[in-house]
Amino acid sequence: MNRRSFLNRVGLSSLSTTVSATGIAQASAAFANDSSKKINVADTESLGIPAYLKKSIRDETLLMEPENLTVACYTFPNYHPSVIHNKLYGPGWTEYNLFRPVRLWFEGHQLLKCCCFFLCMYLPNLLSGQSPYIDGRPWTDKRIVCKDDGIVLRYGDGPANCDAYGAREANVVKDNGTYYLFYDGAGKDGWKSCLAESKDLKHWIKKGAILQLGKPGANDSKSASAPWVIKEGKTWHMFYLGTPHTSPPPDRIPSFPYLTMKAKSTSLEGPWVKQYDVTPFFVKENSFYSVTASPGFIVKYNEEYLQFFSGATQDSSGTKRTLGIATTKNLDGPWKVNEKPIFPITEQVENSSVYYEPANKTWYLFTNHIGIDKNKTEYTDAIWVYWSKNIYHWNENDKAVVLDSINCTWSKGAIGMPSVIRVGNKLAVLYDAYEGYSTYHMRRNIGLAWIDIADLAKRESD
């Protein structure tokens, strides 16, 4: 009897029940039994087949060994990397990638081993294209290969207690062979921009705070943090986040509005001179940036500067976050904000770091995705990347996961802002995260991960 005739005779529902209930090996044993008689319930139980299997077979005679039976073993390829899945979904894809939106809830939670539970609880939504988030926010099951290198800068030992309670919002720049890492140090009087230096991105020397809080009443009186810098001639221009509001001490977490402010220096080490007379752009009512207009990556393109800033607005359903583009030809002047954001406000992303790959003439935008847990608590759950051939126009569907609790080696909770820089044929990704399973804003460290440029190009071409 050939395979097709056998399947037609047994019935697909019966066969699927047998295989799903007992596994391929036990099902094969049942059909290959030497007896020419019916297999009774006792026999099926001795083989490990549930007694209720008998009820699912339309005709018990179908359990008799078919003539000229050839037993074949079929494997399910989704649990292991394969050539076809590399092509369809990206290098190294397996069905375990579908665990990406599922948060690990406690130390030792071995979610990746719970295949049956996951397939029952989450796979139907994922295969139907439904969001795994409780509020239906956008998501993606695409990934790029990103190898985490662990923590490279820990909080707590900065000069003058500048990062006593945490280090986050990493932004890396290279100048004259030295890497300069700007990061938010959560100190005893608030969050301020701090500096560390390195020759290899792994070993850092902390230099302390490079910005101080503004005077009472100033827009940066409670936080002067999250800076982005660009050099024009001999001058470094800094665009940093200022706010007059924070949560109570000791955390002093910055709160709305998030504003973009300006400083300049002839050296990355400072001193940095604040320019209170310069307002690059400001929050605007009834816009996508009504409560947040905070700084982001800056690049010069076609004789003008583009800044990918974070915009956020609020309505009855909560906070909506996205990215916008502002342009200028004068770094000491005002910027013009594009009326529409580059992604819908429902995309729930913030912060930006942009890389251009000349080999395939593609722009890559790295950003934080804001997830939501079962308690409706929002937190940065992943780093995403978007790609486009046109720096002014982006498609929210062209995206993939870079780093989250699945491939981060030390954080299974909140993963913060990314900053990327090319090193040889790789992209270095600096980011902050909480060591462990928490989504807490404080006690963050800075981590390092790597992406092969070739893998980045493969993801874009799929």
Written description of the protein model:
With 462 residues, the protein is of the alpha+beta class. It has two domains: 3-63, no CATH class; 147-461, Tachylectin-2, Chain A (5 Propeller), CATH 2.115.10. The protein contains nine helices and 20 strands. It has helices at residues 3-10, 12-22, 24-31, 41-46, 53-56, 83-89, 115-121, 123-127, 453-461, and strands at 147-153, 167-175, 178-187, 190-198, 205-209, 223-232, 235-243, 259-265, 273-274, 292-301, 304-315, 318-328, 336-337, 349-357, 362-372, 378-388, 399-403, 419-423, 426-434, 444-452. The strands form four sheets. Strands 2, 3, 4, 5, 6, 7, 8 and 9 form an eight-stranded mixed sheet that branches. A hairpin with a 2-residue loop joins strand 6 and strand 7 (235-243). Helix 2 crosses helix 3. The radius of gyration is 27 Å and the shape is elongated. 37% of the residues are buried. Mean pLDDT is 84; it is low at 10-42 and 113-119.
List the helices and strands and how they pair.
Elements lengths: L2 H8 L1 H11 L1 H8 L9 H6 L6 H4 L26 H7 L25 H7 L1 H5 L19 E7 L13 E9 L2 E10 L2 E9 L6 E5 L13 E10 L2 E9 L15 E7 L7 E2 L17 E10 L2 E12 L2 E11 L7 E2 L11 E9 L4 E11 L5 E11 L10 E5 L15 E5 L2 E9 L9 E9 H9 L1
Parallel strand pairs: 4-6
Antiparallel strand pairs: 1-20, 2-3, 3-4, 4-5, 6-7, 7-8, 8-9, 10-11, 11-12, 12-13, 14-15, 15-16, 16-17, 18-19, 19-20
Helix pairs in contact: 2-3
